[in-house]
Design brief:
heterodimer, A: alpha+beta, five-stranded antiparallel β-sheet, B: alpha/beta, five-stranded parallel β-sheet, 5 strands, 20% strand
């Protein structure tokens, strides 16, 4: 600030000097030129008076008021002075006039070698009857920069107040500007997100008003920002909540096992979950935004969907479902049911329909299979019952008199009762598993005995005598902790299957092997075999391979399912190896330590 | 002597039926499944066929259908031994004449009475056995 004021002052002084210099130069020039012109027009005699007389030049010097006037001289053509007059102490520099008649009025700068002064000289020729008689020379001091003594008071008067006032102005300005600087700092703070600040000084006047307005503006801006921030965080929270809810609903819809379609009032699909793709065999893009007629080829479904849309306007209207087979798989059965969607605000306003498509193939199959199962069970039960009935009737009649027939009859009755009991046990085991309340009746069982027992039972019943039966197992095997009855059912079922699905003159082999950690029981047959696709499914309840050779056999599709349930119940593994047409081997693997853990009650 | 063919996968059933029917004066033959029975029918058509429905290799239904197809003009009385559910679903038998459903457990005595009555009427000229 001080530096700036000093610079300004310096500048002012410099300009003043410059102005003065310029003024003096102009003054000298106008005077010099004017005098040179006048003197040039005068007669030679007037300029060069006789000896002892005062000439024009002397008069000129004495009447001269210009302090810069230095000398006046008349010279002849050779430049020799003939008359001269100068300020005191001035030696007129001897300088020839340039011989140029055109420059009759000239101006030049002359440096005097004798006293080191610089002169500004104006010269003009003097004529006498048309010829140049000589020249007049008028010299002025060349004005030079420099503080002249007479200017000092003026400068002092000018600079002193400036020197005194500058600091005063400086401090006054500082005081006035301080609130502005603080405002600036506050604004910068606000820009950088700093804490709230106010301009604390309260000067009066316009600046005070301005600062008050500024503070009010900052206040209201601050409030506005706070409101916006809280609104934003509120919006953020609610949008998070919304997106969470949306994601939740979306995931629920995704997780649903059924396909969900939403059809708007216009009859176009505006939502479909991912399951739709699998169930209808259409991409979402080909469904969404389109009417059923555009993507559906099943006339029943089109009629149902459009019909429902038309009649669904009544509150609480729920139509019956329809069942369709999708185009890509006629074996499949889909149940389609539409539910009207009403506006939550206006319960009478229909928004469209939600259509639920459910795959009921399995259900239908299970229903059908259950029917077959009942028929099968009743057949399985009634066959031994029939034999019992016939034998007991015969024994009651005349045949009862024969001793040999009585023995035979009683044996048969005994066998059939055994068979019925096995069957009933099988069914009970299934229903126990089905109800989930089965209790394991663990016993230490010698597997060798159990297997031999089962093997003998099945071979002696001799349903198909053109088969060969083999048993192969080590003489001694560790006892296992298993449910004897369940395991017997499992082995029995495997053996029964091996006989049932064998070829004429085939072989049924029962094998047992003991390993360090497990015992494996295998039943091998040389029968129809199981295709790789069926191997995946044979353990499913009610499943029976779609094979003529299998279908011609009595069976309820429960045997293997029960075997698997029993083996899993013992934490064992049931596996099958089979080649279609060559035979199958079923293997039950029971872990020894699992048996121990079972015993210890850990599992 | 009237010839009876019994098709059943239950050997005990064949055995007791054979014994009782032979005692009643019939000639009895047994077959362990539908296929074996069909072969026997092809060799010589019996007077009566008593068959179970569920049998290995060929079921009773298939056996009947095959006989109807191969011998449309046969003179053969067929007894189907079956459980109640199968009696309820017997649409398949609509075009088979002289077919009698017998629900298990059967009474041999009643079966013989049925047969005797059938053949005595036949002697008198014509079958009286309604389905």
């Amino acid at each position: 600030m001080i530096v700036a004021s000093l610079v300004v002052m310096g500048l002012i002084v410099f300009l003043l000097f410059d102005y003065q210099l310029d003024t003096r130069l102009k003054q000298a020039r106008s005077q010099g030129v004017g005098l040179a012109r006048v003197l040039s027009g005068m007669a030679w005699d007037e300029l060069v008076p006789e000896r002892g007389r005062q000439g024009v030049l002397q008069a000129l010097r004495q009447g001269q008021s210009n302090p810069d006037f230095a000398y006046a001289a008349v010279v002849d053509i050779q430049g020799k002075p003939v008359n001269e007059s100068s300020a005191p102490g001035i030696v007129i520099p001897d300088q020839p006039i340039p011989n140029d008649p055109l420059a009759w009025l000239g101006e030049r700068k002359i440096h005097s070698a004798s006293d080191g002064r610089n002169f500004l000289e104006f010269h003009a020729p003097v004529f006498n009857g048309g010829d140049i008689r000589g020249y007049v020379r008028l010299g002025y001091f060349q004005p030079e920069a420099g503080l002249q003594y007479e200017d000092l008071p003026f400068f002092a008067m000018f600079t002193l107040p400036v020197f005194l006032l500058t600091p005063l102005f400086y401090f006054l300005l500082r005081r006035e500007i301080r609130p502005l600087r603080q405002m600036n700092e506050n604004l910068e703070g606000l820009i950088e997100g700093g804490t709230e600040k106010r301009v604390e000084l309260h000067p009066s006047g316009e600046l005070g008003d301005f600062i008050q307005s500024f503070n009010r503006f900052i206040n209201s801006a601050q409030n506005r920002i706070q409101t916006l921030e809280s609104e934003q965080s509120g919006m953020l929270t609610s949008s998070k909540l919304l997106s969470y809810r949306h994601a939740r609903i979306e995931s629920i819809l995704k997780a649903l096992p059924d396909a969900i379609l939403v059809i708007d009032e216009g009859g176009c699909v505006n939502y479909a979950n991912d399951k739709t793709v699998a169930l209808l065999g259409k991409t979402l893009e080909s469904i969404i935004g389109k009417k059923p007629q555009e993507w559906c080829k099943d006339p029943n479904l089109i009629t149902y969907l459009s019909g429902h849309n038309a009649s669904g306007g009544q509150v609480g209207y729920i139509s019956d479902s329809i069942r369709i087979a999708p185009q890509y798989d006629p074996e499949k059965l889909l149940e389609v049911k539409a539910y009207p969607l009403f506006s939550p605000k206006d319960g009478a306003h229909l928004l469209g329909n939600m259509v639920v498509i459910r795959d009921c193939t399995e259900e239908q199959l299970a229903k059908k299979n259950r029917g077959e199962f009942i028929a099968q069970i009743s057949h399985e039960l009634k066959t031994p019952l029939n034999v019992l009935a016939m034998y007991s009737e015969a024994l009651l009649g005349e045949d009862g008199n024969s001793e040999s027939f009585r023995v035979e009859g009683l044996n048969v009755i005994h066998d059939e009762v055994e068979r019925l009991s096995t069957l009933i046990n099988n069914m009970l085991a299934i229903s126990r598993f089905e109800l989930g309340g089965i209790q394991m009746n663990r016993q230490r069982v010698r597997l060798g005995e159990l297997l031999e027992d089962a093997f003998n039972n099945i071979t002696q019943s001799g349903r198909d005598r053109d088969l060969e039966y083999e048993i192969d197992m080590p003489r001694e095997m560790n006892a296992l902790n298993v449910d004897k009855e369940l395991l017997r059912i499992a082995v029995n079922n495997l053996l029964t299957n091996a006989i049932k699905y064998n070829k004429p003159n085939g072989t049924v082999t029962l094998t047992a092997q003991e390993f360090d950690d497990a015992i494996e029981i295998s039943v091998h047959d040389t029968g129809v075999g199981i295709s790789p696709e069926d191997q995946q499914k044979i353990f499913e309840k009610f499943y029976r391979a779609d094979d003529d050779k299998v279908r011609e056999q009595a069976g309820h599709g429960l045997g293997l399912s029960l075997v698997q349930q029993i083996v899993h119940f013992h934490h064992g593994k049931l596996s099958v190896e089979s080649e279609h047409g060559k035979g199958s081997t079923f293997t039950i693997r029971l872990e020894k330590d699992m048996a121990t853990r079972l015993q210890a009650g850990v599992v | 002597m009237k010839k009876i063919l019994i098709a059943d996968d239950e050997p005990h059933a064949i055995r007791i039926l054979r014994q009782s029917l032979e005692r009643a004066g019939y000639q009895v033959e047994g077959a362990p499944n539908g296929l074996a029975a069909l072969e026997k029918v092809r060799e010589q058509v019996p007077d009566v066929l008593i068959t179970d429905i569920q049998m290995p290799r060929m079921s009773g239904k298939e056996l009947c259908a095959q006989i109807v197809e191969e011998m449309p003009q046969r003179d053969l009385l067929i007894f189907i031994l079956t459980s109640r559910t199968e009696i309820e679903h017997r649409e398949w038998s609509a075009n088979i004449d002289n077919l009698v459903f017998l629900e298990k457990p059967i009474s041999i005595r009643k079966l013989i009475a049925n047969l005797d009555e059938h053949f005595s009427h036949e002697k008198a000229g014509g079958s009286s056995l309604a389905r």
